[in-house]
Amino acid sequence: MQKPFTSIPEEQISIALLQKVKTTMQTLTVKVLFEEEGDRILKMREEGQPWDRDTLPEASSEASEAPKNVNPKNFHNPYNFVPAPPRKTDDPELGDRKPVGHGCYHSDRWTGRISVKLKTITPLLIPDASEMTENKDHKTYPVRLGADGKPYLPPTSIKGMLRSAYEAVTNSRLSVFFKHDKRLAYRMSATEGTTAKPARVEKRGHDLYLRILEESSCVGGAAKLPRYDKYGKSPDKGEKHQALKYNSTKGLPQHGDRVRVQLSKGKVTQIQRWDDNIPGGDWKLGWVCVTGANIGGKQNERVFIQNGSDVSVKVNDNIVELWEDLIADYQKTHEKDLAERDKKGISPSAYLGNKPGETAWSRHVYEKSEAKLQEGTLCYVELQKGYDLDNLHHTDIVALQPVTISRRLYDVKPEDLLPKSLHPAENKQKLSPADRVFGWVKQNGKGSYKGHLRVHSVQCQTSKEKAIAHFGKSGVPLAILGQPKPAQTRFYCAEDKNGKAIEKGEYKEHGYESRDRGLRGRKVYPHHNHLPEGYWDNPAKHRTDDINGYYQEYRRHSGENERDSQNRSITGWVNPGTEFTFDIDVSNLSNVELGGLLWLLSLPNNSHHRLGGGKPLGFGSVRLDIDLENSDWRTGQDWREFYRSLTPITPTSLDPSVCIRDYQNAVQQIYGSGKSFEKVSFIAAFLRSSTGFNDGSPIHYPRTNAKIDPEGKNYEWFTDNEGGDLWSLPSLESGKSLPLKSRTNQKAAQGRGNAPTSAATERAKPS
């Protein structure tokens, strides 16, 4: 029989064959195998090649039926990760090597121009920062326009999108990986803080020593110093009237003051400066420790009491790191919050209320001098279980912390979990495929290399009337975008170097616990699949009702805080269906280097790249397709012949599918372990991200209910999860979702009190 190729549903054509057909510039004749069902052709593939769609049914085509209703009990996180396994750096193509240079056209390499068509599938955000307006710290952005009044899409944005994708599908080195050289911290449980001992850093000669204070008359070695009114709501929380002051001057004791005190049942009843004339009585020596009104209902600060039998440990680099990495984590975490208080003219030490976020900040959060461990530093020390106080060694010091119930440092730094083969290149001899093709700049120090790819001639082919939606001067207030939180180990850490998701049920302190662990990989934002018709309509109107179970995730809910410093507004966006064209100039690319790029430019029909702003909210899904008629790339030999004759010549037969196949074979050979190209972990994850999910679960930030909470409260899901089932972020390849209700296993919360106080102890699993 004879049958037009276009009449066969794409889901019944293998991905490899479909790609070969789409990227062939001349007539193609190929032997195929297929199955029959009546007059239907099923599972058509090239002879000798496997059927490659079983693992990715969602890549079939846009004709696949979308779920009619959303799954009301589950959701997908807006971001996930493409695994980045250890690389084989000695491979001639996907490994590391010195680039070929720009001095000539190499005979066996490709140089020329690739014309590309880009079509927006969801609205595209291209904000114009130069035309931004600001009102009460809220920023509003118009669409960036070109001289023709059409949306201007910067070539650098397209190049950045392609580079990120190219890094992922060639498993190249990370182009940027910095500020990951310090250990992160997690919030310890309340029971762990009961064993911490007060300590002070003292200088003896040229060395620092950590003096551990032991006073049997005080609970935990520190005396309570009356300071605040339990129910006080003033900025000083009743400090002026409630605080115990110096007998002689009636002044308020300050942090670090050297004092003498009288105690009654572990509580300070009299306080004088160390060098004041002291009347008779039982006076003890110590130092005032003021951390601030950082807890609702707090009444006391502390005095660290000196004892003649106190032991000391010489401070080494490891002890310094325990303190300075922790304080750096605290100050970085609260940097934005402190800036907000500063804008409002509110002192960081001011007490605002009993609710979370309304109390005063601890001094170590805002006081820059606390960032360095130095003489006079007051802290709490956590000691290794089974320590001998008479023979204390620096290895017995598990943690230094500014308060009793503190954050606790993980055992290893994020950079320790990333294989060295994935760290940014240090020199030109170690450039990975993405570095060679797109260019490289040394992360620390001097060194760079101009790449072999340039994006240019970006033009919008749709009329400006149809390309842009306008929302008026006030614009549409977008939902708040979440900040990266690498300390959330169940989302960012992996069981192994191959990016395997941490098993459900592990405590968070076991995230960065060992160098044997790994990182999840490269962050991506999966395409928001199967959004219902009308989802993007009337964005200026706040919609509380759902459409087939999908809520208006991209718009911030109306209310008093609809527009503030936490979110942004837009006065327009680029409409879905808008078409752009652009050119990519390439030079001296090998078959594999070019093949990886061509594969990205000719993904299956239902696959998308992500571009522009607001990707976690569903913006910026685009389709790319090669315009073969306007493309022209040739080998170096062909270009030599052309320049020698300056007359038209017949170039080497151009078959993009050959380059693509070479690229796929290279990936399969190095990373496949007997599996097909599409089943390689980072390829399967990338394809899943580009097609989206098919289980009917919407994509949004974690929350406890399907309906959007106007106050946000995303933290409640993580809080419930911490005391509940301890869910980890599922892998992209699995396509699995997360439950809205993350607390169903109450035993996990009850067993949390037995969690280890040191990462040196065995892992604890919930009962």
Total DSSP E strands: 34
Q: Structural class, from secondary structure content?
A: alpha+beta
Strand content: 15-25%
Termini separation comes to 64 Å
Largest sheet report: 6 strands, antiparallel
Mean of residue pLDDT?
88
Describe this protein's structure.
By secondary structure, the protein is an alpha+beta fold. The protein has 16 helices and 34 strands. Strands 5, 22, 30, 31, 32 and 33 form a 6-stranded antiparallel β-sheet that branches. The chain is elongated, with a radius of gyration of 31 Å.
How are the elements arranged and paired?
Blueprint: H1 15-22, E1 32-37, E2 40-46, E3 74-75, E4 80-82, E5 110-120, E6 133-135, E7 138-141, H2 155-170, E8 185-187, E9 197-204, E10 207-212, E11 222-226, H3 239-242, E12 258-264, E13 267-273, E14 284-289, E15 300-305, E16 311-314, H4 317-333, H5 335-343, H6 363-366, E17 378-383, E18 397-401, E19 407-409, H7 414-417, H8 433-438, E20 439-441, E21 448-450, E22 453-460, H9 464-467, E23 468-470, E24 476-477, H10 489-492, E25 493-494, E26 518-519, E27 522-524, E28 568-570, E29 572-574, E30 579-589, H11 591-600, E31 609-610, E32 621-626, E33 632-635, H12 636-645, H13 656-671, H14 681-691, H15 715-722, E34 738-739, H16 746-750
Parallel strand pairs: 7-28
Antiparallel strand pairs: 1-2, 3-34, 4-27, 5-30, 5-32, 5-33, 6-7, 8-19, 9-10, 9-17, 10-16, 11-15, 12-13, 12-14, 14-15, 17-18, 20-21, 22-30, 23-29, 24-28, 25-26, 31-32
Helix pairs in contact: 1-13, 11-13
